[in-house]
């Protein structure tokens, strides 16, 4: 009963106050109050999760009275009189809610419309004994890394294949094989990933591929989490080198040792605004579910450091805070198992694909993960484990094949069956759907439109071929240099083209300057555009002019151009 009344009261406050902070002083009921506030989707309005303070009072009455007081709805004498009168406070909240709160406010999740449900006819790749947890990147073709094992290569490996269609067939990059093994357990005696390398999450940032994966080296026990998260890097997504000196980058929290001993694994990584975001499962986290419920628990970290060894922040109940031993895994983002996420610039939201039993569903969260902002979308009722959302290289949503902003395609590949007799997940299949929240390009800011097409080569009738980089148009006269910048091309309208802010134009033979210890840079319109390799310079029929460092530094730097493989 009190929960319903508090819900009504807090919804009312959304309309009555513009305060940035409302202090709720409650100890015993604080977790429930936080949960209700989170469900109300009020983090982006007057109330902020960061304002919750739980150390001043001890009753729900204190919480409500304190809230009224800080909103200016109760004077100090009124607060004193009613401090211990729970019924009066609840009655006031209820009365205000009945008289002033529109019924529509109770529904805070924005409904999404869906269309064009699509599925593959059977598995899209011929895998090994088991196949699951794919990471799928649109990079000219669909590139897929997944966890697998076959009779020739026992143990857990990272398989790779690619296809021009999500419905397959996927095949190894060269030859006729269905897949190729690109990453395997470490043979070093004390390696943390000596037995198992699985659950890959692959992104490309500034020309470098990063693969986050789960690894373990011994038989599981009931005393600690065994799985740890590792990182490997690559110039092409095929040839990998272990990072962090071969050591894990994320360890199990080991704060809950009476649950599922799996440990920390199943990573999903995206890149947003200069930060690597990592969502992962830790069955030993302080706030993970009990063993009887599977021990699930998703936690979120972010850092500008891809190894997560420095400047790490962790998602807490009041937003992202500096990660410490004390707060680590105290806040659980959710309790699923084996999830994948990407960021949608069109929706300005995280999309999380997850399995709920045999259901494959999509959930949508704002950039700070505070609460759901769109209704869930159910994709399938016949799924097994390990969804992988099709994403552009930085793990953002791909653009609709129509080139428009009004529709967002969401495609997933995941295991749909279990083999016999091991009952391991297999049969990777494709399912997809289009969603829309009523958005269109005309209603978006230029910066948002640029974010949607970031990393794409865009083509508009009668206009220059253009690469969208760092929110600007980098126009080229020749297709030759473009092939080093992106493999994804899309046709757009002239209106979309012009909505993206202009950056520079690259003419054939454009000047290039260089100096000792610095990357060569195209000199365009009195600004330099550094490049990560010489191939684009050669193919643009340009040549490097060496200049003193002082002259090189005298030109402002626009944006760096990273060559891709």
Automatic annotation (TrEMBL):
Organism expressing this protein natively: Photorhabdus khanii subsp. guanajuatensis
InterPro entries, alphabetized: Glyco_hydro_beta-prop_sf
Name by which UniProt lists this protein: Family 43 glycosylhydrolase
Upper classification of the organism: Bacteria, Pseudomonadati, Pseudomonadota, Gammaproteobacteria, Enterobacterales
Domain of life: Bacteria
